[in-house]
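*** Backbone structure tokens ***
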Amino acid sequence: MIWDLVQNIDKQAIEWRHYLHAHPELSNQEVNTANFITKLLNNWNIKTKTGIAGNGVIGIIEGKNPIGRVIALRADMDALPIKEKNNLDYKSKNIGVMHACGHDAHMACLLATAYILNELKEKWNGKIVLIFEPSEETLPGGAKQMIEDKILDDPYVDIVIGMHVSPELPIGTIGYKEGIFMASSDEIYIDVTGKSGHAAIIKDFVDPVISSAAIILNLQQIVSRCNDPSIPTVLSIGQVIANGRTNVIPEHVHMEGTFRTFDETWRNKAKLLINEIINNTAKAYNTTAEINIISGYPTLYNHEKLTSEIIKFVDSNLKEVKTVSIPIRMTSDDFAYFSQVRPSFYFRLGIGDQANVSSLHSESFNFNDNALKYGIYTMSAIAHAYLTDKINI
């Protein structure tokens, strides 16, 4: 039944995805995207709330009996500041902005899912909350702000489902992992100050470059000597700006990096160690350091019982979809905030084929539209099964 509806809406979903891909908008600027989504939901007589956490859109579908379970389905809306290099009919018309992370696919899948479940609303009880989330790519993240705006409380949401495209998995496959799945992510900003001078006259300057180099090296002790090896952890400095010359030692060095892990207690301890090591190293080199650690997204956690029951259902009932258990990922997603407050299931939708070799966040990212129907099918079937008591936790 649902697979037939997916086949019927698939062509329209591809058109929606192409439109959204051609008209990307950055975080906190998703005005036209929100209007496009709202218009479609209104056309289907789905109740909407707009302006949530900026440009977020909420849709609410009520079943035959609205009293019952409530499931939330989430898609992110924002694009990235990347100039697209693809030669496509639906190439980005907003130069320098691109849906390079698949959010266009996420929205198209959720729109098609909303259409299908709305068509079937006389066959299930309870409510569906459709979450079109802005600003996933930019801290503090739209999910956190939407939760603060009480979108999970009226109506009270029981479980939350999300997905993300994955070039590493073949089309027709969904990847999952029970328990911890994706890393927390914190941003590190460091400014080291010394005294500028001629590079040949050592006694006249205090070198912030040498101090910064020592800071970078010493920070690695957090991973190699302070961390429990059973907790995957990454600390990377990705930007170093000194702005000196061959014969000029600058006064300042600016550095930026990321810290990622899977344990919230260790995460908090590590941030204290980062401050301590930076300050002590800077002092040892007669420099000073200013440190700003911006807390990013928490660890994304898939509720074990819910994940197990969903995968059992998919394996038993969706013969068109293959499931595969996949490892933890050091990448992050602000869906993690939902997983911190409600039982949640977040899966990866396979979009890989032999012609698709581009990675996420690449200027040439694209994929075969044939992958969309498996995302629509999986999300629609999971929601329908939960609202007809075929999935229980």
